[in-house]
Write a structure and sequence with these properties.
Number of helices: 7
Number of domains: 1
Radius of gyration: 19 Å
Helix content: over 70%
Largest sheet: none
Number of strands: 0
Order of helices and strands: HHHHHHH
Distance between the termini: 22 Å
Low-confidence stretches: none
Length: 152
């Protein structure tokens, strides 16, 4: 028991402040992602009805809308699972395990790939939204990558 406490204390001493801040921000962001994903999943049918009413005013919204209706639930589930995967990765990086970075990387990239593969683009505005939605994940991947030298 004493050895385990010593290892935890040693890890806390070796963990750089920058990595600590990244992990704390990630824990908060992942919490919001899981809660938001569950909310989106539970309100998906209501959202579809709202989009259908909006499309009556906008006219034909195209194939992407139909794919969103078909694959939306699957995409939301993938997003929740990916957020939980990120949680595991961040926890491992908090404990200075390099493997956590690669788990985190998969958890951050998988939802974008899955969304694009299943639904496709949403026109120019959807593509811009997807790129904007990748800014923070890419920034965090780079910042965690800069901390790999502190992990075993």
């Amino acid at each position: 028991m004493e050895q385990q406490n010593t290892n935890i204390a040693d890890a806390a001493k070796k963990r750089p402040g920058f990595l600590k801040v990244l992990c704390i921000l990630s824990f908060i962001g992942i919490g919001f992602a899981v809660i938001g994903g569950i909310y989106n999943l539970l309100t998906f049918q209501t959202a579809i009805e709202g989009l259908r009413m909006a499309s009556a005013f906008l006219g034909d919204v195209g194939e992407s809308f139909d794919k969103f209706i078909q694959w939306g639930t699957t995409v939301y589930i993938i997003n929740i699972v990916a957020a939980l995967l990120c949680l595991v990765g961040v926890y491992m990086m908090w404990n200075l395990k390099k493997t956590g970075f690669y788990i985190y990387l998969i958890g951050e990239i998988a939802p974008a790939i899955a969304s694009f593969a299943l639904i496709g683009g949403f026109g120019p505005f959807g593509t811009m939204a997807m790129v904007a939605g990748l800014i923070f994940p890419i920034a965090f991947i780079i910042m965690y990558g800069l901390n790999l030298k502190h992990m075993a």
